[in-house]
Amino acid sequence: MFHRSSPEAFEAVIRTNVLGTAQVAAACSAVMRERRHGRIVLVASTAGLHGEPTVSAYAASKGAVIALGRTVAAEGAGRGVFTNVLLPYALTQMTESGMASEHRHLMDPAAVAPVVAALCDPRSTLNGEVIVAAGGGLRSADSVEWGTVLTSETASGTIPAATSGTAPETPPEAASETPPETIPEGSGGLTPARLAELLERSRKGPAHRYANAQDGFLDLAEEMTR
User: Fold this and answer.
1) pLDDT tens across 51-105, in order?
2) For residue range 129-160, what is the model confidence (pLDDT) as tens digits?
3) 3-class state of residue 73 by DSSP
4) Which of 23, 31, 117, 203 has the greatest number of C-beta atoms within 10 Å?
5) CA 22, CA 39: separation in Å to the nearest integer?
6) HEC string of 158-209?
Protein backbone atom coordinates (compact mmCIF):
# COMPACT_ATOMS: atom_id res chain seq x y z
CA MET A 1 0.00 0.00 0.00
CA PHE A 2 1.18 3.51 -0.79
CA HIS A 3 1.18 4.74 2.80
CA ARG A 4 3.44 1.85 3.78
CA SER A 5 5.97 2.31 0.96
CA SER A 6 9.38 3.42 2.09
CA PRO A 7 10.94 6.36 0.21
CA GLU A 8 13.88 4.14 -0.71
CA ALA A 9 11.71 1.43 -2.24
CA PHE A 10 9.62 3.96 -4.14
CA GLU A 11 12.74 5.66 -5.48
CA ALA A 12 14.25 2.36 -6.61
CA VAL A 13 11.25 1.61 -8.83
CA ILE A 14 11.19 5.13 -10.29
CA ARG A 15 14.93 4.99 -10.94
CA THR A 16 14.67 1.66 -12.76
CA ASN A 17 11.48 2.17 -14.75
CA VAL A 18 11.63 5.89 -15.53
CA LEU A 19 15.30 6.83 -15.55
CA GLY A 20 16.36 3.51 -17.06
CA THR A 21 13.87 3.95 -19.89
CA ALA A 22 14.66 7.63 -20.37
CA GLN A 23 18.41 7.21 -20.58
CA VAL A 24 18.22 4.53 -23.26
CA ALA A 25 15.57 6.46 -25.21
CA ALA A 26 17.60 9.68 -25.03
CA ALA A 27 20.70 7.99 -26.42
CA CYS A 28 18.67 6.48 -29.27
CA SER A 29 16.82 9.71 -29.96
CA ALA A 30 20.01 11.75 -30.29
CA VAL A 31 21.40 9.44 -32.98
CA MET A 32 18.08 9.03 -34.77
CA ARG A 33 17.39 12.77 -34.90
CA GLU A 34 20.78 13.37 -36.47
CA ARG A 35 20.02 10.76 -39.13
CA ARG A 36 16.45 12.04 -39.52
CA HIS A 37 14.97 8.58 -39.17
CA GLY A 38 14.12 6.31 -36.30
CA ARG A 39 11.48 4.24 -34.52
CA ILE A 40 11.28 4.07 -30.72
CA VAL A 41 8.90 1.83 -28.76
CA LEU A 42 8.66 2.39 -25.01
CA VAL A 43 7.09 -0.30 -22.85
CA ALA A 44 4.76 0.81 -20.06
CA SER A 45 1.64 -0.67 -18.45
CA THR A 46 -2.07 -0.05 -18.07
CA ALA A 47 -1.24 0.56 -14.41
CA GLY A 48 0.12 3.87 -15.66
CA LEU A 49 -3.22 4.66 -17.29
CA HIS A 50 -5.63 3.61 -14.59
CA GLY A 51 -3.60 3.22 -11.42
CA GLU A 52 -3.24 -0.09 -9.58
CA PRO A 53 -3.73 -0.77 -5.86
CA THR A 54 -0.67 -1.98 -3.90
CA VAL A 55 1.85 -1.02 -6.62
CA SER A 56 1.86 2.78 -6.39
CA ALA A 57 5.50 3.22 -7.41
CA TYR A 58 5.09 0.89 -10.37
CA ALA A 59 1.93 2.66 -11.53
CA ALA A 60 3.51 6.08 -11.13
CA SER A 61 6.59 5.02 -13.06
CA LYS A 62 4.58 3.59 -15.94
CA GLY A 63 2.43 6.72 -16.11
CA ALA A 64 5.66 8.70 -16.40
CA VAL A 65 6.84 6.47 -19.24
CA ILE A 66 3.57 7.08 -21.13
CA ALA A 67 3.97 10.85 -20.74
CA LEU A 68 7.63 10.58 -21.74
CA GLY A 69 6.73 8.65 -24.87
CA ARG A 70 4.13 11.17 -25.99
CA THR A 71 6.59 14.00 -25.38
CA VAL A 72 9.41 12.34 -27.31
CA ALA A 73 6.93 11.63 -30.11
CA ALA A 74 5.98 15.30 -30.38
CA GLU A 75 9.62 16.39 -30.35
CA GLY A 76 10.77 13.85 -32.91
CA ALA A 77 7.98 14.09 -35.47
CA GLY A 78 9.67 16.82 -37.51
CA ARG A 79 12.89 14.81 -37.65
CA GLY A 80 11.35 11.56 -38.80
CA VAL A 81 11.78 9.94 -35.38
CA PHE A 82 8.51 8.32 -34.37
CA THR A 83 7.86 7.13 -30.83
CA ASN A 84 5.01 4.97 -29.56
CA VAL A 85 4.17 3.34 -26.24
CA LEU A 86 3.17 -0.30 -25.81
CA LEU A 87 1.15 -1.47 -22.79
CA PRO A 88 1.37 -5.27 -23.00
CA TYR A 89 -0.39 -7.99 -21.07
CA ALA A 90 1.86 -11.06 -21.05
CA LEU A 91 3.32 -13.75 -18.82
CA THR A 92 6.62 -12.61 -17.37
CA GLN A 93 8.61 -13.39 -14.25
CA MET A 94 6.61 -10.62 -12.56
CA THR A 95 3.10 -11.67 -13.65
CA GLU A 96 3.29 -15.45 -14.00
CA SER A 97 2.58 -16.39 -10.39
CA GLY A 98 -0.57 -14.26 -10.13
CA MET A 99 -2.11 -14.99 -13.54
CA ALA A 100 -5.48 -16.77 -13.44
CA SER A 101 -5.45 -20.12 -15.23
CA GLU A 102 -8.35 -19.20 -17.54
CA HIS A 103 -6.36 -16.27 -18.93
CA ARG A 104 -2.95 -17.84 -19.30
CA HIS A 105 -3.53 -18.93 -22.91
CA LEU A 106 -3.96 -15.27 -23.89
CA MET A 107 -0.76 -14.13 -22.22
CA ASP A 108 1.89 -15.47 -24.59
CA PRO A 109 4.46 -12.68 -25.04
CA ALA A 110 4.84 -13.77 -28.67
CA ALA A 111 1.30 -12.53 -29.33
CA VAL A 112 2.44 -8.96 -28.59
CA ALA A 113 5.61 -9.13 -30.69
CA PRO A 114 3.91 -8.39 -34.07
CA VAL A 115 2.71 -5.02 -32.73
CA VAL A 116 6.26 -4.08 -31.79
CA ALA A 117 7.56 -5.25 -35.17
CA ALA A 118 4.98 -3.15 -37.00
CA LEU A 119 5.82 -0.05 -34.96
CA CYS A 120 9.54 -0.52 -35.67
CA ASP A 121 9.01 -1.08 -39.40
CA PRO A 122 10.75 1.69 -41.41
CA ARG A 123 7.51 2.15 -43.34
CA SER A 124 5.53 2.97 -40.20
CA THR A 125 4.52 6.60 -39.68
CA LEU A 126 2.55 5.99 -36.49
CA ASN A 127 3.62 8.45 -33.82
CA GLY A 128 2.47 9.18 -30.28
CA GLU A 129 0.23 6.12 -30.11
CA VAL A 130 -0.47 4.35 -26.82
CA ILE A 131 -1.40 0.74 -27.53
CA VAL A 132 -2.71 -1.95 -25.18
CA ALA A 133 -1.95 -5.41 -26.57
CA ALA A 134 -2.49 -9.02 -25.49
CA GLY A 135 -3.38 -12.41 -26.95
CA GLY A 136 -3.50 -11.26 -30.56
CA GLY A 137 -5.73 -8.24 -29.81
CA LEU A 138 -5.11 -4.58 -29.17
CA ARG A 139 -6.75 -1.37 -28.04
CA SER A 140 -5.84 2.21 -28.79
CA ALA A 141 -5.56 4.19 -25.56
CA ASP A 142 -5.62 7.96 -25.13
CA SER A 143 -5.70 10.85 -22.70
CA VAL A 144 -9.06 12.61 -22.81
CA GLU A 145 -10.41 15.90 -21.48
CA TRP A 146 -14.18 16.10 -21.61
CA GLY A 147 -16.50 19.09 -22.09
CA THR A 148 -15.81 22.52 -20.62
CA VAL A 149 -18.12 23.80 -17.88
CA LEU A 150 -17.97 27.10 -16.02
CA THR A 151 -17.28 27.40 -12.30
CA SER A 152 -17.53 31.20 -11.91
CA GLU A 153 -20.02 32.74 -9.51
CA THR A 154 -22.45 35.56 -10.19
CA ALA A 155 -22.60 38.85 -8.34
CA SER A 156 -25.66 37.60 -6.46
CA GLY A 157 -23.63 34.84 -4.88
CA THR A 158 -24.95 31.87 -6.83
CA ILE A 159 -23.26 29.71 -9.44
CA PRO A 160 -24.71 30.08 -12.95
CA ALA A 161 -25.85 27.10 -14.97
CA ALA A 162 -22.84 25.27 -16.37
CA THR A 163 -22.16 25.61 -20.07
CA SER A 164 -20.70 23.04 -22.41
CA GLY A 165 -20.27 22.60 -26.11
CA THR A 166 -22.69 19.67 -26.26
CA ALA A 167 -24.38 19.39 -22.86
CA PRO A 168 -28.10 20.20 -23.10
CA GLU A 169 -29.30 23.39 -21.48
CA THR A 170 -31.58 23.06 -18.45
CA PRO A 171 -35.21 23.78 -19.46
CA PRO A 172 -36.67 26.88 -17.76
CA GLU A 173 -39.39 24.83 -16.07
CA ALA A 174 -36.80 22.43 -14.58
CA ALA A 175 -34.62 25.30 -13.44
CA SER A 176 -37.53 26.86 -11.57
CA GLU A 177 -38.04 23.68 -9.56
CA THR A 178 -34.56 23.75 -8.01
CA PRO A 179 -33.41 26.91 -6.22
CA PRO A 180 -29.90 28.14 -7.00
CA GLU A 181 -27.20 26.75 -4.74
CA THR A 182 -26.06 29.31 -2.21
CA ILE A 183 -22.30 29.65 -1.90
CA PRO A 184 -21.07 29.54 1.69
CA GLU A 185 -18.75 32.34 2.67
CA GLY A 186 -15.08 31.42 2.19
CA SER A 187 -15.86 28.47 -0.11
CA GLY A 188 -14.12 30.02 -3.10
CA GLY A 189 -17.42 30.08 -4.99
CA LEU A 190 -17.83 26.32 -5.36
CA THR A 191 -19.38 23.70 -3.08
CA PRO A 192 -18.48 19.99 -3.23
CA ALA A 193 -21.96 19.10 -4.47
CA ARG A 194 -21.78 21.69 -7.24
CA LEU A 195 -18.32 20.51 -8.23
CA ALA A 196 -19.58 16.93 -8.52
CA GLU A 197 -22.46 18.17 -10.69
CA LEU A 198 -20.13 20.11 -12.97
CA LEU A 199 -17.83 17.14 -13.40
CA GLU A 200 -20.80 14.96 -14.38
CA ARG A 201 -21.87 17.56 -16.95
CA SER A 202 -18.32 17.75 -18.27
CA ARG A 203 -18.31 13.98 -18.88
CA LYS A 204 -21.42 14.40 -21.05
CA GLY A 205 -19.60 16.91 -23.24
CA PRO A 206 -17.32 16.31 -26.23
CA ALA A 207 -14.05 14.44 -25.85
CA HIS A 208 -10.94 16.55 -26.38
CA ARG A 209 -7.70 14.86 -27.41
CA TYR A 210 -4.44 16.72 -27.83
CA ALA A 211 -0.98 15.94 -29.16
CA ASN A 212 0.56 17.86 -26.28
CA ALA A 213 -0.32 19.89 -23.18
CA GLN A 214 0.21 23.24 -24.90
CA ASP A 215 -2.48 22.45 -27.46
CA GLY A 216 -4.83 21.54 -24.61
CA PHE A 217 -4.17 24.81 -22.81
CA LEU A 218 -4.68 26.92 -25.93
CA ASP A 219 -7.95 25.17 -26.72
CA LEU A 220 -9.26 25.70 -23.18
CA ALA A 221 -8.16 29.33 -23.20
CA GLU A 222 -9.99 29.89 -26.48
CA GLU A 223 -13.18 28.33 -25.11
CA MET A 224 -13.03 30.43 -21.95
CA THR A 225 -12.56 33.71 -23.83
CA ARG A 226 -15.30 33.30 -26.41
Assistant:
1) 999 999 999 999 999 999 999 999 999 999 999 999 998 877 777 667 677 777 7
2) 999 999 889 999 999 999 999 987 543 333 34
3) helix
4) 203
5) 15
6) ECCCCCCCCCCCCCHHHHHHCCCCECCCCCCCCCHHHHHHHHHHHHCCCCEC
